[in-house]
Amino acid sequence: MKNTFKFLYPTLILATICLVVSLSLSSTNAITKKRIEKIESSKTQKAMSRVLDADDYIEDTIKEDGKNVNYFKAVNEKKVEGYIFITSSNGYGGEVKVMTAVLPDKTVKAVEILDVSNETPGLGQNATNEKFYGQFKGKSGGVTVVKTGADGKNNEINAITGATITSRAVTKAVNEALELCGKIKTEVSDNE
Known about the structure:
With 192 residues, the protein is an alpha+beta fold. The protein has a domain at 84-181. Helices cover 38% and strands 28% of the residues. It is built from 3 helices and 7 strands; from the N terminus they run αβββββαββα. Strands 1-2-3-4-5 form a 5-stranded antiparallel beta sheet, sandwiched between helices. β1 and β2 (67-76) form a beta hairpin. The longest helix has 50 residues, at 2-51.
């Protein structure tokens, strides 16, 4: 009986500690969830205004491969100024997240790199430099990456030195946004 108690007592203490910690974590998550969502929404709104300024951003969806894909219409006085897509692709170290603003003529207005935190510091994380992502402005579908010598005429962009995989991931995300844009209507309906 003494041996059973020696084994049972630490097990009960450990189970109690696990239960208290689990309840504490779930309570903290429930309390902070709305605040985190509000902060994320605010960051998204600020990023959208940097890539395409508008009076209003109307969230909409399109079907792509049987799934709903969200995007935003940037609207000024009921006129669509462009579309904003948040897309991602796998880079060298993980997911690369990109916001792309596309004009109604299906050319890139601007690109903002939202997350390259898993990419190599000093290499892949250089995707956040305007010298790299600024190359996408004015491009249309089928943007390709070259290591050197992009002339700006053939929908080519120069890769980041030492980070070709990250460069391709960003380009793939931008191309996905351009492809999605080709599937949406170009006017705001009367009920919006």
